Amino acid sequence: MTNTTRLERAIHEAIDWAVRLQSQGAGKMPDPVQQADFERWLVQDPDHADAWARLQTRLEIAAAVRTVDRRAAGQARQVRELLTQPRRRGTLKNLLGLGLGAGAAALLVREGVQWSRPMLADLQTGTGQRLQRQLVDGSTLYLNAASAVDLAFDAEQRLLTLHDGELLVQVASDPGRPFVVRTAQGQVRALGTRFLVRCDPGSGRTWVSVLEHAVQASAGQAAGMSADASLRLEAGNQAWIDVDGVHRVGAQSASIDPDAWLQGRLAVLDAPLSDVLDRLRPYRSGIIRMDPAVADLRVQGVFSLDDTDRTLRALAETQPLRIDYYSRWIVMVRPR
Prior knowledge:
Elements: H1 3-22, H2 32-44, H3 46-60, H4 62-69, H5 76-83, H6 89-96, H7 102-110, E1 123-124, E2 131-134, E3 140-143, E4 148-153, E5 158-164, E6 166-170, E7 179-182, E8 186-190, E9 194-200, E10 205-212, E11 214-219, E12 230-234, E13 238-242, E14 245-249, E15 265-272, H8 273-280, E16 287-290, E17 298-304, H9 308-318, E18 321-325, E19 330-335
Parallel strand pairs: 5-7, 16-19
Antiparallel strand pairs: 1-4, 2-3, 3-6, 4-5, 6-9, 7-8, 8-11, 9-10, 10-13, 11-12, 13-14, 15-17, 18-19
């Protein structure tokens, strides 16, 4: 077993222990048997202690992250000043997860610990924030919650690099300068259009949805791919990009309205609960933990992104689910 795989497993176990220990309730005496079991687990493997320390650090700095999240997107100078104060440098290192393997980092993102977002990107949104910005070429950019993008406009190109999260862009015409959105998996070139691009760190995929006209979606490396290296996508088409190429999504698989988030809504046509919770996590600080037994429950309905408590209640009322809160930072979704 690789070091990264061991740490991923340890992080899963650390989150489970956090849920169990906090379920005892504030102000109550700890269960001595459970406490002894926890202490044995903690010293059983150095990865256990490492994972527990990392998890506690993420939860402890959640309030600090919320402070930064409230700042207007693009205020890089103020954020830099906040994070480069001597007493904040250790926090910055923890916040960005330096030294954490890619697999373990993706695991924490899937659980809802939103700490990987580049803090000094040209434009960035915090937990629960959305942003609309008119770009210098006349295009309109919309950023979903927990997103970060860098802009590079010059005489030859218009380039957006999406590091995290999701964006929608209405592209202004400029035949002499292509408009491109780039991610870790590939790029999307506008062909006079309105489209969305979403990064999914948990799966290592970039999702593309075309609302008007067309785009050319290309994977990062063409050699040795099992899928198409590049595809033209027309209005109504969706696809995902990964290390193997560009994969077209059938119309029957498009189960979540791609741009309902612009109005603060999560419009679900027919999607598994796991996908619904993935869309909810950027709008809630802390961890949303899901029991694998309920991951494939099919969900339909229109839910609020701006009131995650109400959405969780609605899911519990319409599905065989129980929603347990173990602190303001940890929510467990499990079978009823």
